[in-house]
Design brief:
With 197 residues, the chain is of the alpha+beta class. Helices cover 39% and strands 14% of the residues. The structure holds flavin mononucleotide (FMN).
């Protein structure tokens, strides 16, 4: 698959086989993220590759606990509303039980923190597609990036005092019949283009 095909056929996967992903493939995906552009070539993104089931389960419990006490208002972002309501109900799994979660942190006082993390995450999702793996952006840890319990837990793995989470991505083998990710082209209803010749 060439780069253009990997880019346009990347779709989100939200149902995974529990099978581990080969180290060689994770290394290629990480390299794609680490080679992503960054503002001023700052390279301050910090990648946490989480494969340990106990750690993933603990994050699942902590995110549910944090969302469950939040209130939904009419201004609550629709996806966050879902996280809050599902957490109040119980059994909310923000990372769809994928075997790999890559959390991307950056310096909280750096103006390009979100943009740099986004470049890295997009690179990793496209790389995953090129390697026949499924992926999906996971934003819940960004929404909870001032939640003390979660911040302290990530600090126990080396997140620095001045770092916060700005995005995350899950990777794994899709639980599809073919084992391949869905690659259907998306129906475009937005992303307007204005040509100025
Ligand atoms: C900034 C950003 C945050 C996202 N957060 C989540 C998320 O937390 N959970 C999720 O399931 N999908 C998340 N997505 C995936 C989008 O829902 C998805 O990209 C969109 O619906 C288009 O579908 P596609 O990825 O299959 O092309 C996020 C995507 C972006 C770019």
């Amino acid at each position: 698959m060439d780069a253009l095909e990997a880019l346009v056929t990347r779709r989100s996967t939200r149902n995974y086989k529990p099978d581990p992903v080969e180290q060689e493939k994770i290394d290629k995906i990480l390299e794609s993220g680490r080679q992503a552009p960054s503002g001023g070539n700052n390279q301050t993104s910090h990648f946490f590759v989480i494969r340990n089931r106990d750690v993933l389960d603990k994050l699942i419990v902590m995110t549910e606990k944090a969302f469950a006490v939040m209130e939904v208002t009419e201004n609550t972002y629709a996806s966050m509303k879902h996280s809050i309501n599902a957490s109040k109900k119980g059994g909310y799994v923000f990372c769809y039980n994928a075997p790999v979660l890559i959390v991307v942190a950056n310096r909280k006082d750096y103006g390009n923190n979100v943009a740099d993390c986004a470049c890295a995450i997009e690179n990793m999702m496209v790389a995953a597609n090129a390697l026949d793996l499924g992926s999906c952006w996971i934003n819940q840890l960004k929404w909870l990036n001032e939640e003390l319990e979660i911040v302290e837990y990530l600090r126990s793995f080396g997140m620095k005092e001045d770092e916060r989470v700005y995005g995350a991505v899950i990777i794994g083998y899709p639980a599809t019949e073919s084992g391949l990710p869905n690659r259907n082209l998306m129906a475009l209803r937005g992303n307007k283009v204005t040509w100025i010749d």
